[in-house]
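assembly run, all chains below
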Amino acid sequence: MRRTIVTLTLLCLVTLLFVPAALAQDKVVIGVSIPAATHGWTGGINYWAKVTQERLKETYPNLEIILVTAGSAAEQANTLEDLYAIHNIDALVILPFESDPLTDPVEMLKMQGVFITVVDRGLTKEGVADIYVAGDNHALGRVSGEYMVEALGGKGDIVVLRGIPTVIDNYRFDSFMEVVEGTDINVLDWQYANWNRDDGFQVMQDFLARFPKIDAVWAQDDDVALGVIEAVKQAGREEELFIVGGAGMKEMIARVMEADRLIPVDVLYPPAMIATGMEVTALRFVSNASVLGEYILDATLVTPENAHLYYFPDSPF
Amino acid sequence: MNHPTTDRQARLKQLGTRFSWQDIGPFAAVVALMILGTTINPTFLSMANLTNVFTRSAFTGIIAIGATFIIGTGSIDLSVGSMAAFNSGMMIIFMNYLVKTWGATWATILAAMGLAMVLGIVGGFVNGFVITKGRIESFIVTLGTMGIFRSLVTYLADGGTLSLNLSIRVLYRPVYYGTLWGIPIPLIVFGLVAVVGAILLNKTRFGRYVLAIGSNYDVAHYSAINVNRIRVLTYVLQGLCVAIATIIYVPRLGSASSTTGLGWELEAIAAVIIGGTAMKGGSARIWGTVAGAIIFSIIGNILNLSNVISQYLNGAVQGLIIIGAVLLQRTGKE
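ok done. output:
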């Protein structure tokens, strides 16, 4: 009996957590579906989505913004159904977990007349997205490669730490290699570091043990770069090399700002792109601006000169 | 009937065979892997590399020593990796808070170490209490707490990364990077935990009860062993091991995020099983577990030291080596 009461109480509490806010029907409802904050970059996505939600609500009282997160592609597909069935959304801003499994669920909403904005990872079918906002993964690899070639004067020995084996990682890596291949820069080896600090630390420890001379490291990601820094410090080889990360984590931007020799630059792949997607979508409903189309954000090279423009101390990322 | 001498000889012989294979087996696998590593790349045997490899095994190794007791009773704990991440996050937050009043002193660090211990003990106790009092399978309870700890650290970090205050970091750093008599501190801690674990398992009543519960739950129960108490204690011990691992992990990168300790639970469980502890409980080997953790660390290192095989196949190679290592260790047995 006591057990039953405890169980029921727990169930009630859980239900309360999910009771949706009462909705006014005359409002334009925009649903925003993003991956749960499972690592630094998605943490940044969550932060910017919340900041933009507040800003849009304040600026445009007739907009209702529903923000939902999902832990997997399948869960995200379920949240899409809920957004339509429960909240009756007029527009959807989505950062898909994976392109393939979410193309159909998004198209279903499109056929119901929902306005679709896709951020970062494109859908696999043409014509589903009304607006597409993305960072440029090819450019991230290219810009990193071009900086590497310039800083090394076209020759030297480098190691590469890749991300998680995905299409995104392949784009970045292939574009980087294309730039580097024509030069005298020799890629000693590459390994996956899974966009993770601990893996970055361990892989770099092993690279340092294996190669007596390394001129530069392409870590591709700022979390990995932080692990690399520790490994390099432990080996006492800070003077011999420099590290190029990527994404625009505030700690790394701060280092660039302070003209840290080890971290001379960073390459942006800003989580604030979700804000771009939400703002442009809102414009569709509150103004007469023409918004349909594709928006490709630059992979900006952050240098000590422009770093202050990309430093957001309040963001968790 | 039995002549005392023959009886003793038989026992000695039995001890001898057990000694040669079940205890030496995992170490034979370590040696074999070291030979393999050296063949692939002579750098493997360099002092710097070996130090890296052994030091890295300390985190999962210390956790695996706790796991040896839990698996010895025939249970499991899936929450250790998440618990380590949560503990790291709490330690960092606590130190960043204390540094404002106490400054960057050892008092701040010691207080945070104390907090980690308390959190480990409480976390372990909760796992054990719910499992025994709620009469729920340990797999389910710890699967639940695994998710809870993981999302708590994500929540604490706002989905981002918690970073330790720089001034404290400088002071705390030697706990991971420092050495005592030329041996890295994490390795010394790992060794001490292993010695204490071995004494607890092999020389105390607690250790005998753990194995008794693992071999036959009902018999242990009817033999007036307080089964629930012993099981809760194994989880508390596991929590303590997680806390110790956390204490030496935090100074390494000075940060915690939701990816911290991801997959440690599987590595720890695998280290225990590779080391010769039975998955169903009833027999357990601390030194085997130590070897198991080192085997894991060596495999990762060997893969990074070579690019003979495509990096895309790393997972497959890792799988083959693990199975091979266990085969090597088990073939000597009947």
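Chain B touches chain A through 32 residues (CB under 8 Å).

Residues 1-5, 14-18 of chain B have pLDDT under 50 and may be disordered.

not gonna interpret more than that til we talk
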